[in-house]
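@channel sequence for tomorrow's demo:
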Amino acid sequence: MTFPLNTWYVACTPDEISQGPLGRQVCGERMVFYRGPEQQVVALEDFCPHRGAPLSLGRVCEGKLVCGYHGLEMGCEGKTVAMPGQRVRGFPAVRAFPAVERHGFIWVWPGDAAQANADLIPALHWAQSQDWAYGGGLYHIACDYRLMIDNLMDLTHETYVHATSIGQPEIDETPCQTRVEGDEVITSRFMSNIKAPPFWQMALRMNGLPDDQLVDRWQICHFTPPSHVLIEVGVALAGHGGYDAPDAVKASSIVVDFITPETATSIHYFWGMARHFKPQDEALTAQIRQGQGNIFAEDQEMLERQQQNLLRWPERQLLMLNIDAGGVQSRKVLERVIAAERTAQTPATATA
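structure tokens (generated this afternoon):
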């Protein structure tokens, strides 16, 4: 096991289950997501107890999940409730996973259901405020989820991978600072009196600010287990206080990264940007979503090819530099969380 299980992951977005059930693999578990009789989110094992067909190939009828093979009907708790012409209430139940709809996402707990607590879902202030706008998307990427965390906690790659959008030499030239607060890892970089790169020139224009003046730029990456990375980013016209500048002279956002392991070498990557300027401008939201989507697409080939190399040469040791501190510390937090989870499971396993 390379990822925590007793925790909340983003499984999908509400629109993905608006027309019917959705099959998705999370942390090695094949699940089906749909809406029950009260429109609540339901997550079950994607396995029909009759003949083993994927329940995700079925349909939802009056809040019941109907298998698309022989019409067996499943209830929200994973129990078979009916089947045309058959007596099936003695069928064994399939596994039900705790699932919660919150902040515009559907979250699932792939581990011990008895430990699931909805209060542990991250509090996202930007998702609950009319002063912020959010737009994002989903990529399926064939890489270990930890490689994506490394990527997001070390933004020096922007100079090279994203040279035409958000990259610039000053990122390399400005050292970053990393600190650990409990299970949170924070890596920050502040750049002063620099030219804004193309993406941020666009953001300044859209916020009614000049795009040809020098700016102060910031990047503050926050990692929290199991695999969430929220990055405070923005630019302010130089000389007004940078990160602390008034809203009238800056464009600031939070890059949202929810990384959900599918398998040991593949992920569902929920990406987006929460914007703290002109939140009612839907056209701007769409424009930023497209631009950011293009930026993240540039990461995909790099990460997938990196994963292929690591699988091909597993014996090779990777080098660690000071720019890797955020990723290194994030992995240490993950190792601690996973070790604690394993230790907690050991007594129960021994008793069984």
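heads up for whoever presents: The helical segments are 145-153, 158-161, 169-173, 198-206, 282-312, 325-351.
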